[in-house]
């Protein structure tokens, strides 16, 4: 494996866990595209490593948060899905591995899995947490359609992820 894509659908500078995965892969001689928002400065170990390339995603515009919740979630979903898909298809090469952080699972998991299939890469998920635990903080109703859709999407995509545990030495 000579190339990997590590996806953080959040701020890379605030994701030390995924930064560590990228750094561990890079130290093994694997070229890493680290994909995510670059709102805060990532660690210098990531920025100064010749085997790591930052691939910045544009965050959803701030004004979307001022819209009604349903509209805001829908537009943020579309924004995120569009730019993540374009980035993974056209702004990085053909990795042997796509490793993504969960949460957020929607729409990240389905897109990463689809691109992994298209590019014939292995697909792995770092299960930091479950998306529903985060969603429930904002939508405290398990029967809410967003929570139900998320549970279904997580279950379907989880079946498709690599079944092996990946261990990293510190």
Q: Please tally the β strands and state the result.
A: 5
| Quaternary structure classification | single chain
Order of helices and strands: EHEHEHEHEHH
By CATH reckoning, the class would read: Alpha Beta
How big is the Rg? 16 Å
Give the proportion of residues in helices.
40-55%
Q: Helix tally?
A: 6
Short description, anyone?
This protein has helices at 16-27, 44-47, 69-90, 108-118, 131-138, 145-158, and strands spanning 3-11, 31-37, 52-56, 97-102, 122-127. It has 170 residues and is of the alpha/beta class.
Task: Offer a few descriptive terms.
five-stranded parallel sheet, 6 helices, 170 residues, alpha/beta, Rossmann fold, 5 strands, disordered C terminus
Description:
- With 170 residues, the protein is α/β, with parallel strands linked by helices.
- The protein has one domain (3-158): Glycogen Phosphorylase B (Rossmann fold, 3-Layer(aba) Sandwich), CATH 3.40.50.
- The chain contains six helices and five strands; from the N terminus they run E-H-E-H-E-H-E-H-E-H-H.
- It has helices at 16-27, 44-47, 69-90, 108-118, 131-138, 145-158, and strands at residues 3-11, 31-37, 52-56, 97-102, 122-127.
- The protein has a five-stranded parallel β-sheet, with helices on both faces.
- Helix 2 links the parallel strand 2 and strand 3 (52-56).
- Helix 3 packs parallel to helix 4 and helix 5 packs antiparallel against helix 6.
- It is globular.
- Mean pLDDT is 84; it is low at 164-170.
